[in-house]
Amino acid sequence: MENLLIIILVLMIIAALVSIHAKDLISAIIAQGFVGYGLVICFLLLKAPELALVQIVLETVTLIIILAVVCDSTMKEIGEPISKRDIFTYTLSFVLVAIFLFYFNKAIVGLNPFGEHTLRMSEMYVKEVLEFTGSANLVKGVLWDFRGLDTLGEATVLFTAAMGVLVILRISGKKQQLTKK
Amino acid sequence: MSVIVKKIAQLISALIFVFGMYSAIHGHIAPGGGFAGGVLLSGAFILLIIAYGLDYFKLKQQTEATSIFESVSILIALLLAFSGLFAGSLYFFNNYLPPGTPGSLLSGGLIPVYNILIGIKVAATLSTIFFALIIYKEEIRR
Lengths: 181, 142
What we know:
heterodimer, A: mainly alpha, 7 helices, 0% strand, B: mainly alpha
């Protein structure tokens, strides 16, 4: 299992280097996607499926958005005929996809069956929250006592979202007013 | 909007407001909590604004008020969390008030206070975002 993790991590580092030194933007984005999905496999191997789900959603959405932006702004090389040099890149990509699927299979087989926890801490949460905090709603007891910093982070995310909306919308509205005058 | 929509929004939004307050205050003994209560509270205001239309200049003042509420409530929550460092053991979010009897309203130490504060914060944040969107639309139209 550690060997699998080391191989995946080395591949991720190589992909990150490739994404820095790539000539065109699209290959850089694809290499970045490799880094993200490698992280998904790492999470699955370490038995954290919910983190892996979050990472999959985040990676897919950001990849699609960045690709759409790049295709909209600087896209020239679509439609070129396949030359002999491209055969090497196609075979390499197929080999990488095969490695990826192999590791996904390994990771998913190694997961716990449904209902069994990896951490002993979760059982302690259920048993002793009432005693420690006195809150009958166990979820709130965990959220505001044991995991207060997590909840503070959630509140900060909301705060940042409101700030972003205010900054973007207010400034553009003011600019349009100025140009009309 | 027509009279029916206005009247029903008036009646319903009061109920939604009360339920949001209940959900935020009773967060530690019943399902719900600060986040859900805050969303309900902002929903009451948003329903009223949608039904009655907006008064542009009044709304601009309200945006400032909601952003002040948002910042102040999260600041008080942070200060409460910091005050745990000086009471008893040294860690953040220390629940130093006595737990009380589980199931009664005054139980759970600091948890109900945090719930109410985060309810105010979420309500203020969501209404700020809504007001900002409406004001942006109005400004473009002029």
